[in-house]
Every structure is written in structure tokens, then in C-alpha cells.
């Protein structure tokens, strides 16, 4: 019996994992697959690093990393055989997976770095590194407001000795209860904005890997990401609560982080990108540090804000 991806595993369930076989596609399916690959390449799909055991690729926004519950839609993994080279070394070829597999997921709306295993040993080793939180991932985002303003107003965020911000706020996970979730933030740039009040360019380093963790954490301190219609209301509620807390204490405060949020921007994409990862090569043991260039629309939005500021 095939189990859908949304199925919650129960105690005493017996699971069998079968990796997808590289079966021959029909002419119709092959044409569909090639059209999908061409679309992915035009959207930015590229190989950042590759050897016999693993690869690092750029995933465009708008596509799932792996098959979701609807198997009719193609995913990033479906495009990997067209852009990656099968293992050629004697040892690697004996351990080759039928098809390359993404070792972790990026949300469908998030673009950036994805690590891919090409051999069984690489898949097992990288999976273990992710499980033990040895893979250090880096993201960048553009948010509304300056997160540092929330430090004295919100218990979820603290200023650390090294100048970074730490958001420590548990997240409820379906079937797993509420689990700890921690994100380190660095403010790369912050500037006034005529529509949003303040824009901040952040580097985000998740210490845990909960679903939508980065989006939730920025929203919970009143600084939702540009384009995040899912958690915009959470950001608005966080601002309302901080403003109410100040009102109760009788303190006066003119911080932008407590002002009402304008309507969410729709249609321009989510301003969150997976920028890089540091990990140990599963075969050689070498420390790998792979980084993806920041996509153009990030720079365009920031530059428009700078130009407006200069004009004023």
C-alpha cells in the first residue's frame, strides 16, 4: 500500500522504503519532463557543485523539492537526472542511487541551495548530519521593520553578546506536539521605506529545522517577510500585542515595530532565499562551504528603497 506524504506514522506501523527506479518514460511523459526541465533552467535551475557522490543545485521558487501528496506534479527531483552526471568512479558507481535524491527540502515558495545525494553512502551520511544538526544552513530575507526594536518588547527575541539576535520560540508540529525552535538573526541592512515604514535585510541561521520556522519566527517578532501572505496576520498580531503591552505600562514608544502593518504585497514572490550551507563531505571528510548568489529581485527591492531614501 502506497502511503501519502501527509500520513502520520503510528506506533507499530511497518514501513518499507523503495527508492524510485529509473524506468523508461513514454514519449508523452518524456516530452512533458523535458518541457519541465527547460522551464526550470529558464527559471534559474543550475548546478553549483558536483562530484561522484553529491551535488549542490539552485532550486527556483514555485516548485516542490520532492513529490508532494499530488504525484501528478513534477518536482525538483524530477529535473535532476537531466542536469547531473551519473557516478563514474568504480566505488561510487557501485553505490549509485537509481536517481539523484534531495537530502532536505525547501518550501515551494523558497529558492536557493539544495544538497543532493547521488550514492547510498552520501545519502545516509548527509541525512545523519542533518539529523544531528551538523549542517549549518544560511538564509537571507527581507522583512518589514527592524527586528532589533522588538528586543525590549517581545520575550521571543534576545540580543546576544556577539551582536546577533536569537529568536527562541517553540513551534507546533502536526503529530509531534510543540517542539523547540531557535533562529539566529543578523541585520545586514535596515532603511526607511515609504510604504512599509522600514525594510531590513537579514541573514538567518536556523538552529532547528521546523516547518516554516524562519517565516514564523520573523512574523512572531512583528517583522514578517515581504510577500508572506501566510504569516502576515501573525506579524500584525505580534505588533498589536507589543503596542498593547507598552500602553499598559504607560511607557511612550515611537518604534516602527509596533505600528500597524500595511496590506501584504501579493504577486511579487516571497523574499526568502537559501543562501548557503557548511557541511562535511560524506566521503572525504572535507569541510564544504557552498554559497548561492543572491537573486536579482532582492537587490532590486533594496536598491529602490535606497534610491527613494536618497531622493528624499
Please summarize what this structure is.
The protein is of the alpha+beta class and 312 residues long. The chain has helices at 27-42, 76-83, 90-94, 120-131, 213-220, 232-249, 296-311, and strands spanning 46-50, 54-59, 96-102, 111-119, 136-144, 157-159, 165-168, 171-173, 177-179, 182-193, 197-206, 272-280, 287-291.
Q: How is this structure best described in words?
A:
The protein is α+β, with helices and mostly antiparallel strands and 312 residues long. The protein starts with 26 loop residues before the first helix and ends with a helix. A hairpin with a 3-residue loop joins strand 10 and strand 11. It folds into two domains: 27-132, Pseudouridine synthase (2-Layer Sandwich), CATH 3.30.2350; 138-269 and 303-311, no CATH class. It has helices at residues 27-42, 76-83, 90-94, 120-131, 213-220, 232-249, 296-311; strands at 46-50, 54-59, 96-102, 111-119, 136-144, 157-159, 165-168, 171-173, 177-179, 182-193, 197-206, 272-280, 287-291. The strands form two sheets. Strands 1, 2, 3, 4, 5, 6, 7, 10, 11, 12 and 13 form an eleven-stranded mixed beta sheet that branches. The protein has a two-stranded antiparallel sheet with strand order 8-9. One of its GO terms (molecular function) is pseudouridine synthase activity.
